[in-house]
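This section describes the prediction task in plain terms. A model, or a person checking by hand, is given the sequence of a single protein chain and must write out its three-dimensional structure as a string of C-alpha cells. No templates, partner chains or ligands are provided. The sample shown here is typical of the held-out split.
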Amino acid sequence: MMPRYLSLSWKILLLMLSMLLLLLLWFTGLSLLHMNEQFNRQQAQRKAQGQQYFEFYNQSSAQQLLTWLQTHVELQQLHLADDFDQFATGLATQLEPLQQNFAVRQLSLFGPQQQLLYRSNAALPGNSNDIVARTLAEHSPQTLISCDVQCDKLLTLPLLDRHGEVAVLLATTDMTEVLFNLHQALGVEVAILRDSTDNNGLQRFTLLQASDHQLLQQLYQVLPAQFDMAQARRDGLVLTLQQHSYYLHFITLDPAGNGSHLLLMLEDVSAAVTENRRYQRRIIAVAGGCFLALLLLITLVTRRISRRILQLARALPLLAQRRYAAFRQQSTLQPGLLQDELTTFADSVLTLSHELETLDQQLQENTTNLQKMAMFDQLTGLANRNMLQYQLNLALAGLQHQPGYVGLLFLDLDNFKDINNSRSHAVGDLLLIETAQRLKSLAQPSDVVCRFGGDEFAIVLMHISTPEQAEQLAARVLALFDTGFTPEQGMVSLSASIGVACSADAGFAAEELIRRADLAMYQAKHNGRNRCFVFAEQMSSDLANRMQLEAELRQALAQQQFSLSLQPQVNLTTGMLCGFEALLRWQHPQRGMVAPDEFISVLEQAQLMPEVGYWVFERSCQHCVALKELGLPQVVIAVNLSADQFLDRNLPDNFAAILQKYALSAGHFELELTESTLVSHVSETLDVMHRLKAQGFAFAIDDFGTGYSSLNYLKQMPVSTIKIDRSFVMGMLDNPADHQIVASTIAMVHKLGLKVVAEGVESLAHLQLLQQHSCDFAQGYYLSRPLPEAQLADFVTHQVLQQQWPASLLP
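The expected answer:
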C-alpha cells in the first residue's frame, strides 16, 4: 500500500495550527479557570459573611434576653430572699412580655438539686437537663441550639439567694428572629435543615424553618439523587430552577455535635452565572478569531514555500535523466521581493547541476576501465567473483525461456598454501596463471571460467540438458592436474577438490547455488581431496552438525573435558609390559563418552589438533612421572602426533620445554605418525624428525599398510617401529590375504632392522599366530582395554607389579 501524500506546506500548517490550538486552549482554559476561581472565592466570602452575621444576631438576641432577665432578678432582690419560691411565683407574670419582646416560648426554674420549681408549660426542651447541669457546674450563663420539630435556642442564667443557694433560670426562644435578621441583612433566603440518610443510603433533608418554604421545596425536587454532601458543605452547591441559578451555602449549627442540623443560605446567583457565560463566549470568540486570522496568515506563507519547493521537485528528476539544460530551465525561480533560504537553495541546486554534468562526463570516460577492473581478475585475466555472480543470475533467469539446468563447478587447489610457504608467492602466482589457462582450454565458449579468490576457481555452465554433463566436466578438470606443473624452480604436483551443484529453477538464488557448490567442495576436501562431490541436501545438515561439534570441542578444551586412556603394550619376546599408547578421550557433559572417530577429524579441520596435541603430551609426561613413582621407570608411552602439529616449526622446542618442566628424558616417549603425514611433506617431515631424534625421541609409523607406503621414504626416515593396522591383524584368521600381508610386513620390517607392533589383538589365536611370525610387540582388547586415568595406578600396583599380567594371558 502506497503511503498517503501530504505536502510540506500542509505539514507546516498543521504543526503551527496544532501549536496555536494548544496555546489558545491553554489560554482559554486558564481564563475560564480564573473566572471560576474568582466566583468560588466570592461565594466562600459570602458564606463566611453569612456565618458571621448568624453568630452576631444569635449572640445579640441572647445577650438582650440575658440582660432583661438579669435586670428582672435584680428588681426582685432575689439575693435577699431566703428561697426561690416567691421568685418562681412571679415568673408567670413575666412570660407574656418575654414572649412579645424576645419570642420566649417556654420559661422554667430549676432548684439547687436540679428539681423543677417552675415551668410555663408542660413540655420541656430535650436538652434542658444537660444545659441546666452544665450551668450549675460552671455557675455561668449557657446557650444552646436545640432542634427537633423546629430549632430553639436555650439560654440559662444562674441565680443566688441570701444563703448562696444556686438556682437556674431556663428560657427557650424561637430562632425565627435570628433567621429574619439574617434574611434582611444579607438579602438571601435562609432555612434550617436536618440532614439524614434513609435506609437506601440516599441523602434526605427535613425542612425545619425557612424564610421561603415554597422555593426550598421546589429546589429540593431538582436536588441530585446522589451527590457528595461533604463537598457540598465545604464548597456549596449550585442548582438551576426555572432559568434561575441558586447557590446553596450549608453552615453547621452545632459544630460540637453530630452536625446533622444545618443553616442553609440560598442566594440567587443568576446574574453572576449569566455574566460568567457571557464572558466565556467572549473569550471563545476572541480565541476563535485569533485562530482564524493566524490560519490565514500561515496559509499564505506556506503556500509560497510549497509552490517553490514543488517547482524544484518537478525539475529534479531531469538530473537523473542527465538533462541538465532542461533542469536549469525548469528550476529557475522568479525573484521575490526578499531573498530567503529557498533562493539560496535554488542557487546551490543550479551550481550542483553544473558540477554533476562535469562529473558525468568524467564518469563516462572512466566507466569502461572501472567495469573491467570490477569484473575481471588482474592476475589471471579470468572473470572475478562479481562477474560470477552476474553470470549466474543471468543464466538462472534464462531458464524461464529455455528449460534445462545451470551448473556450477567450484574447485579449490589442495594444499596450495604450503606451496606458497615452501616455494614463494611468485611461484604460486605462476601456478595460478597456468591453472587458469588449463581451465579455459577445457571450457566451452558458452561457459564462464572465474577466479573466485585465492586458490579457488569456478566454472559456470550456462545451459546444460542434464546434471551429468557437469559431473563429466568435473572429471575432465581433475584429469588436468594429472600432468605436473613446471615453473622455473622445478616441477610441482597439484590436485584439486571440486564441488558440483546444479539448478533447473529460474527463481533460484545465485548465492545459494554458490553455497551448495562450496559445501560439495568441502566434502571433497574432507574425503581425501583430489576428487569431486555433487551437492546433496545432507551436506547442509552435516555442516551444521560439524559446526556444532566444533563449538563443543572448543568448550571442551577450555573446560578440561578431555582425558587420556592408556592401552598397555606387551613385548612378545619377554612377555613383559613394555609401554602404553596414550589415547585421547572426551567425556561430554550431556552425551557422555564420545568416540574418537567422531571428533578427531573435526579437531583437525578446526586446526585445534596442535593445542590438543601439546595437552596430550604434557598429560603423558604427568603419567610417566606417576609410573616411575609406582616402580616402572623404563616404560615407554606412545603419543600420536597430527600432521598440523608435526609441521609446527616450534614443536621440538616446545617438547623440550615440557620435558624440562617434568625432569624427563625424551627416551620415555615414542612419537607415532601416520603414513599420510610422512609422505605429504617429505622435506619438512625429515627435518623435524631429525631434530626430535637428536633429542632422544623414538618414532613409529601408525596404521602401516593403509596409506601411501614407500620403502624409499621409509629408508630415509629415522623410524624405529612399524605398527600394523588392526584391520589386517583382526582379519588374518579368516582372510588369507590379510594373513599374508601381516607375515610379509613383519618379515620386511625385520629386514630393515625395525621393530613391529601389532594392533587389534582380540584373541589368543591372534596372539599365537603373531608369535609364530616373530612379531615384537602387541596390543589389543585380548591383552587389555585402554585404561582410564583413574584405573592406571590400580592396574600397575595389583596386576603388573604382582606379575599377574600379562603372564596369565600369554600361551
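For orientation: Residues 319-368 form one domain.
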